[in-house]
Amino acid sequence: xxxxxxxxxxxxxxxxxxxxxxxxxxxxxxxxxxxxxxxxxxxxxxxxxxxxxxxxxxxxxxxxxxxxxxxxxxxxxxxxxxxxxxxxxxxxxxxxxxxxxxxxxxxxxxxx
Length: 112
Fold this sequence. Notes:
By secondary structure, this protein is an alpha+beta fold. It has one helix and nine strands. A hairpin with a 2-residue loop joins strand 5 (about 45-50) and strand 6. It is globular, with a radius of gyration of 16 Å.
């Protein structure tokens, strides 16, 4: 399988690779926590951030190449950028906030 055959999904503390032609899961790697996973693929590397940590994965296998706990920076959303490429973490963070507010509103309405 080639890198161009895969689509990558960041979800619930994990990264999942799917075959773009079939949708079949090629691999899944659990990183940390259950939060939003921001991902970026560039130059044969898959970078991911979740729960205040950064990871580099081998995109064909999901093997973790390195991990950096980013000590002292908290557990919030983290963006990823490399020369010429950046993730859309601002838009994704806004959507996550809307989802959390909607969930909280629904829970409050159910408690009345």
